Amino acid sequence: MSKTKKLPEENSRSEESKTRILLAAADIFSRKGLDGARVDEIAAAAQINKRMIYHYYGSKENLYVEVLRYNYNKIYVLSKGAFVPGDDPRENVRRALRRYFYFLAQDEEFVRLVSWEALNRGRYGSMVLPQLLDLAQSDLGEILQDGINRGIFRPDLDIRQVLLSIHALCLVYFTRREMIQPMWPQDLMSEDMLESRLQHILDFVFNGILKHDKA
Amino acid sequence: MSKTKKLPEENSRSEESKTRILLAAADIFSRKGLDGARVDEIAAAAQINKRMIYHYYGSKENLYVEVLRYNYNKIYVLSKGAFVPGDDPRENVRRALRRYFYFLAQDEEFVRLVSWEALNRGRYGSMVLPQLLDLAQSDLGEILQDGINRGIFRPDLDIRQVLLSIHALCLVYFTRREMIQPMWPQDLMSEDMLESRLQHILDFVFNGILKHDKA
Amino acid sequence: MSKTKKLPEENSRSEESKTRILLAAADIFSRKGLDGARVDEIAAAAQINKRMIYHYYGSKENLYVEVLRYNYNKIYVLSKGAFVPGDDPRENVRRALRRYFYFLAQDEEFVRLVSWEALNRGRYGSMVLPQLLDLAQSDLGEILQDGINRGIFRPDLDIRQVLLSIHALCLVYFTRREMIQPMWPQDLMSEDMLESRLQHILDFVFNGILKHDKA
Amino acid sequence: MSKTKKLPEENSRSEESKTRILLAAADIFSRKGLDGARVDEIAAAAQINKRMIYHYYGSKENLYVEVLRYNYNKIYVLSKGAFVPGDDPRENVRRALRRYFYFLAQDEEFVRLVSWEALNRGRYGSMVLPQLLDLAQSDLGEILQDGINRGIFRPDLDIRQVLLSIHALCLVYFTRREMIQPMWPQDLMSEDMLESRLQHILDFVFNGILKHDKA
DNA sequence: GATGAATGAGATTTCATTCAT
DNA sequence: GATGAATGAAATCTCATTCAT
Questions:
Q1: Where are the alpha helices (DSSP H) in C37-83?
Q2: Given Cys at both, which of B21, B60, C11, C30 links C112, Cβ 3.0 to 4.6 Å?
Q3: Which CATH number, 3.40.50, 1.10.10, 3.30.420, 1.10.357, labels domain A80-207?
Q4: Average pLDDT per block of 10 residues along chain B, 215 residues long
Q5: Chain A interface test: which of B64, B179, B193, B200 (most A C-beta within 10 Å)
Q6: Domain D68-209 is classified in which CATH homologous superfamily?
């Protein structure tokens, strides 16, 4: 139905309106969810007549699906290129994790849309992608395998579990932001705090919490 | 209000209705969220006249808050008693984690309500508890500190970060269930799979992914 | 969905409201058709909140179908009993035709609803009855056959064609009322004019179907 | 309006567009009626910009009236010339009826527009013609009178009633097509079936209006 | 003359809430 | 305490019409 396959960046007035609607909708859906969002609100935010939303997207639900599609595409841009084959697996993990962590840090919209979708049991997202595996789609799986092969990472790892765990360690910081903020005096989104969380994750992933005596 | 008998045991018919509403509401709110749930639906599920919901709870939103309160209380039951002071810190962590993990496994309602609440930025939950920190409320903090003190856990750990990470590792398995299920052939909620995830978490938490040569 | 199978004449307040809606809708749909009618208008005419229409009938379209069902049922009341087996076939025809003609004369609502339905190609009526054959449903078919068997009516008649023709001769007077009124000075619905049309039809029909002995 | 060339032959592009709109509108109005038709649909069918409809016809309603005018004109083409003064009145009736019947058979659009109009109580058609009496406008009235005068048709006929009846006998076959089709195995619009209905009508009409000599 | 985009008014439908009993 | 019926407000969606080019 929609031809906005990649980025909505064609032109002509209509494309621009269509895009304005999509961006406004993405913002509002991400903040309030499908049920909480109001079409009137989206129209106002897009500075366009409500009628146009139906003209371009057919229904509120379909607009939501298009918003998902648009956001899910962001993952593709992110995913590839983190794995540098010759490189130290540890370095590869660091790179991929940093990239993913900061991607989430910078795109709250994405984080929230994915979360709504999880609560909706993938009802709408499944119309867009057979399955969105976030990180799994990226190179991280290959990186881990490479590390195992090269004897750097433990050979008994279940890569799927590790991917899921890494995913969780990054995401939780953003999805629970309001709830954990009171635990720290600084703003969770400040550069320092972000970097500090990332370092914790890397440390955690590599070493766990045990003190490893080496001799 | 005027002449109702005030029996010492007040669990009369009215209390039972009130409870039926709460349980039905908890189920439906957990599945659809505040905005997605319908008062009619709740009344039907509670097998009660819609009017009673307003009689007992005043409004849909307030009913939702009561559902949150009821669920958040479950945490208290869970939290205390995991920390056995003299015990090996590793053993204490294992016990607390297992307890928490299976608590989440057995209470999807809780998991989902907490997740909706996170997306709602704690708007309603904050009416109930100043902050719900799930695990943090439990003994795990103390256990970790005890482990550090006793030289078993690394001294440079930021306990808050660790608590958050452990929380994430457990929760993600349930909140993303539908999305990750395709990665495994077995049912994610089967005993085997649950135990296997728990072991992964324990292993991950204790050791991370690196191969630690010991000599 | 609806339990108003026969006549809507149960009781209790809700049944009464439901009936009021149905009657108001029948009136307005018959005057303006499905597309021309407004739900607001029906609600106002039924002196009820619009919401109730959806509560009882689900949708405008479904309400229309129920109106059709209610009206089509009138035919059954009418249809049976015109055929008196031993009687002169001519007498039987006279009786059945008079009955049908005056039924149409007295129920403009029915006439118009059936006509809208015809223009809609039976789209909605077919949900109610597999086929509404108006007169054909009545005894007239039997009466004609009886007349043929007894040598009063011409043996080469195609009863289906005759039924259709009779149907047309009666109905046209009411469906084209506004258009033909200018041809006569009196009111088409006056007793005199009605009787005069009926006599014309009977005369027309008899001299058409009668076997004319020539000697 | 200011400087447009006023060619003697004005059938330029504009006239052609105007006509295309009219034809598309006639088709759609005839199928769905005034209320059921959509301006968008008409524009799409005419392969023209919607704006042009307003440019040429001012409003949807006015376009409908023009469609009626265009269709009602067809009657004039049909009407005259059926009456051959010297001819046998029976022959004249046969000719006129056949002509009318097949005119209706071939122009469903006309049949349906006239029927919508009847249900609309001539609201729009009356803007076009003070009264449209279909057949009455034709020679049939004269033919009947001629037949009476010459002692072929019964002298007590009310010509208006007969005209109305003949009108009905022809029209009903087309207006109720979908509803009566199930009564016959063949397609109602097949040559055989059409001819068979026409013969029925002629037979029906003649044996009704003919003076039956008994010796 | 022609077009694509846009709109305001109003249609149908939904929903939390309250009335009358 | 409990119920069935009802409602006002607001949501989604539709449509004839007009603007800007």
A1: 39-46, 50-57, 60-79
A2: C30
A3: 1.10.357
A4: 42 79 96 95 93 93 94 78 88 93 95 94 77 63 92 92 95 93 94 97 87 60
A5: B179
A6: Tetracycline Repressor, domain 2 (1.10.357.10)
